[in-house]
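== Folding task for one protein ==

=== Format: two labelled lines per protein ===

==== Paired sequence and structure tokens ====
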Amino acid sequence: MLIRPYDDADWPQVSAIIREVMAEGDTFAYDPAMSDTEARAVWVSASPGATAVAVQDEEVVGTAKMGPNRPGPGSHVATASFMVAADARGMGVGRALCEYTLGWARDQGYAGMQFNAVVETNVVAVRLYERLGFQLIGTVPGAYEHPTAGRVGLHIMYCPF
């Protein structure tokens, strides 16, 4: 698997992954009815951020976006988000993308990385982030409307560099 910077030619495959993840409704607070133009504006990060793709056998199997968590006085802390195609889950794609974004953030001089909204029922992701050095800072109770579990919490997680 290769992790590399996003190229505009990747958009059709990245868009398909975004649509799939949004339709599942259990990890991202994105409106499933958003247009392709809106999805692209949300996912494809301009500098100082970046977007990356995970490619296996010339197929995009995952994507990540990263950049400053907040503007101005909060811009020394990075954030990132990840989406993996359903048929590529459990194969290390998410881990590789997370490691890539952590390396990117360190290389850019960020002081750490913060995740603002990790759905608490996404236990696979929570465990992965903890193994990669993230700490669970707190949980906003009932902040996410999960399609099967009802209202669940959103974790805030942080990894200092």
Summary: The two ends are 26 Å apart (CA to CA).
